[in-house]
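ok, trying the design again with the full structure, not the truncated one.
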C-alpha cells in the first residue's frame, strides 16, 4: 500500500515538473521571444526568481527523484514495478543534470547582469543564448514526460 502511495506521489510530482517545462516551451519562451530585450531580461529575471521556491523544488523537481527512488526501494523484488521506478529516477536525474549544467547557469548570469534599466539588455539577452536554453528545455520536456510514463507504467503493475 505504501509503495503505491509513493508511486502516485512520484507521478504527481513528475507531472508537475513536466507541466512546468512544457509551459516554458509552449508559452513562456515563445511569448518572451516576441518582446524587446529590456522586457525579456526583466520578465525572465522575475519568472526565474519566482520559480526558485520550495514548493516547486521539493514538490516537483527534486521531489520526483526522491519519490521515484523511494518507490523503487519500496518495490524491491516487485520486478517490473521496481525497474520502471528506477528508470523514472534515472531520467529525472538526467533532467536535474541538464538543468544544472545548461539552464541554471544562464538563468543566474541573466539575473547577475542586473536590472534591465541599468544594463545593456541586448548584450545580456545575447549572452543568455535563448536558443540554446530553449533547445535544452525541450529535452527536459521530453525526459520529464518519459518520467511520467515510467511511473504510470509502474503504477499499472503495482
Amino acid at each position: 500500500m505504501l509503495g503505491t502511495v509513493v508511486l502516485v506521489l512520484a507521478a504527481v510530482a513528475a507531472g508537475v515538473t513536466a507541466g512546468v517545462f512544457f509551459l516554458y516551451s509552449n508559452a513562456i519562451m515563445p511569448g518572451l521571444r516576441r518582446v524587446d530585450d529590456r522586457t525579456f531580461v526583466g520578465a525572465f529575471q522575475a519568472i526565474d526568481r519566482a520559480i526558485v521556491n520550495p514548493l516547486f523544488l521539493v514538490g516537483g523537481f527534486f521531489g520526483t527523484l526522491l519519490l521515484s527512488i523511494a518507490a523503487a526501494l519500496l518495490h524491491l523484488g516487485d520486478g517490473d514495478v521496481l525497474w520502471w521506478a528506477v528508470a523514472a529516477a534515472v531520467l529525472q536525474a538526467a533532467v536535474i543534470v541538464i538543468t544544472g549544467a545548461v539552464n541554471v547557469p544562464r538563468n543566474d548570469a541573466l539575473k547577475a547582469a542586473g536590472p534591465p534599466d541599468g544594463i545593456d539588455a541586448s548584450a545580456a539577452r545575447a549572452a543568455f543564448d535563448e536558443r540554446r536554453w530553449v533547445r535544452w528545455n525541450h529535452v527536459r520536456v521530453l525526459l520529464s514526460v518519459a518520467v511520467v510514463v515510467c511511473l504510470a507504467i509502474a503504477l499499472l503493475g503495482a
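Keeping the full-length input from now on. Residues 80-112 form the longest helix (33 residues).
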